Structure of Dihydroorotase:
Amino acid sequence: MTDNHWLIRGAKLLGRHAADVRVSDGRYAQIGNGLAAEGATVVDAQGLVLLPGLVDLHTHLREPGREDAETVLSGTQAAARGGYTAVCAMANSQPVADTAGVVEQVWRLGQEAGYADVQPIGAVSIGLQGETMAELGTMNASKAHVRMFSDDGHCVSDPQLMRRALEYVKTFDGLIAQHAEEPRLTQGAQMHEGELSSRLGLAGWPAVAEEAIIARDVLLADYVGSRVHFCHVSTAGSVDIIAAAKRKGINVTAEVCPHHLLLTDERVASYDPVFKVNPPLRESSDVAALRTALAEGIIDAVATDHAPHAEQDKTCEWAHARPGMLGLETALSITVEALGGPDNVDWDIVAERCSRTPARIAGLDDHGHDPEVGQQANFTLIDPTTTWTVVPDELSSIARNTPFAGLNLPCTVQATFLRGEATVLDGKLTDRSQETA
Ligand SMILES: [Zn+2]
């Protein structure tokens, strides 16, 4: 049954003052103190922090094509449990999301699942081949209303293709999200290039392969007057380039992934493929630079790069394992940890980096709003006083490749609401199946 009326009692809005929030028919209806419960289901939220529903700019949902690793349903359930109300689905499905048909399919699957809004990202090039531009305009005009395009997994390394794509999306205020990796500098790469890669004898993925593309694309975006977004920024040098671009007023945005805020290349010494990711885990000086850049806003957003993989693709030799890690259910906890821990974190910065700014970058007008009467009620309730231990089998994702297994993390998501309806309540998924019957 659909519950249309809720009274959220005593939540600390954005971690500040406590208030009651009444939600009716999908929207915030009343915000104040001592609100009457009449006709509403009451959620006791004393001590909980209310944030706008989180928005992920970078999710691999694997459907269509690799439903043995994740589906739109399981992925959005993981998202809801992580506090997310919207996710942007990367284009490297099978088939690739490079046509109106595929992006509409992914969008519709998200609607049917009902756990989070799914905004498909379209491919920049046909088949992610980096050669011929896909029909960006057709995808934009489709029901999925695609505004962000990315060949993620691959870099748009051809500067002429990148230039044309940047020019093309200007016509509908679109955005290219670049996986910055100069492919000729990373051939055969297995881990971050540095002292440890030499010691382990593994081929290195040098920081300059990322930085060279970021520098190039900053210049291209400036030259054609378009905007560019950088996926999963992983090095201190990239931060410097982005900071310089912003000082010059160039229209660039950037995201960082939780794993790059917490883990270093030292993990690779275990040869456990769960730590294999692209771009790779870097050095502690990079981690420190990324944390500072996130706190200061040089990096605009946290994005998960949630990358589920089937067991056979991860429990094999390091060299043969697919790169990528789960992220949706652990991102909030790790972000809070990276921004100072639950006692010191500025919740407004968490809201900014994990909800408002990513919603604005992706053009998701219904998301990223603070509680305000009349606004769509997309929010999450977090308990900052609790901790939890990551147990892979307890995650909602079908895949199990979390690099955080066994780790004790701060903050639990107690509830998530999408358009005024609970997707998570008391820390558990609600049954959304009737919504789509
Ligand atoms: Zn990528």
